[in-house]
Amino acid sequence: MSIARPTPSRNPVTILAFDGSMEMSIVMTRDIWHAGAVAQQHADPSATISPSEQLVVASQDGETVRTFSGSLFQPDRSIADIGQTDLIIVSGIWCEVEQLITKHRPTVEWLLKQHQQGAKIACLHTGAFLLAETGLLDNKAATVYWRMVDEFKSRYPKVILQPEKNITSAGNLFCAAGVTSGVEMGIYLLEKFWGVSVAAKVSRHFLMDIPKAPVEFQLALDQQKRHSDARIQTAQQWMESNFSSDFLLDEVAEKVGLSLRSFRRRFKDATGETPMQYLQRIRIETAKQLLATSTLGIDQIGYRVGYEDASYFSRIFKQKLNVTPGEYRASRQR
After folding, report:
1. For residues 242-252, b (16+ Cβ closer than 10 Å) or e, as one string?
2. What is the pTM of this model?
3. How do beta strands 167-170 and 173-176 pair?
4. What range does the domain containing 119 cover?
5. What number of CA atoms fall less than 13 Å from residue 97's CA on the CB side?
6. Low-confidence ranges of the chain (pLDDT < 50)
7. Is residue 213 part of a domain?
């Protein structure tokens, strides 16, 4: 008599473990996301999903894996037991690339399927090889561990490799060149999933000895530049250099040789946002950086990023982030 296989589960966050995974890339990631889930439950006691159900560690077959350091690690389940997940984090792996890809072809196919179902995928260290193998990174930005740059370029010439960056963002695909930068990327993703206050709590509790670089500022505008409209790219660069000035869109359109109507249409087609939405996002991201790293007053910051009316700046900021500038500053500077 055959035993029925359990129905595949739906888990918000899935961490992938492999033979050769660096154990800290599994354990630190799990601890950070578990802490985030606990903080989220405290913020919303009515949540029906417990922290232990928010994330799982999975391997290709569900069997114990031997990590890079030689210790044994028991995953919670196999990838076949996961029907759908919102975020996949591919741990860093230390082994021969050819062996990694050949052995984990089913994982590559699973990653592609999960992405088609809407999952975001984040890779640490050499985990980017498995993501690149799906083809999802073709013509998109990525980074990888510095010693593997030449091999990555040789295998995946269509990927826009940016080895000078510690973290890259391409839509819902993220890469971190190392384990520490993977931790920073985790905080960035926590903010995207569960908000500023949750990410700030985890950052305070776990990352006090790691410099709080404004990763979100680095990534925020990346994906809007992955297009081939040279005139719109020029307009974006000009807006990013002059965002605090009081200018009209007609002026920007004229600078790139377009009518205002064509400029608006082409900007939206290329970036997915209107020029004013893009400008507002530049200002808000810059304000976030200043709030986190400077002692300037909130009215001064608002003025510096282009808002003469401090109350209007505060209103726009809260509308975008669900916290006031003062609350954001307090959460990032404790």
Report:
1. bbeeeeebeeb
2. 0.66
3. antiparallel
4. 9-220
5. 21
6. 1-5, 208-213
7. yes
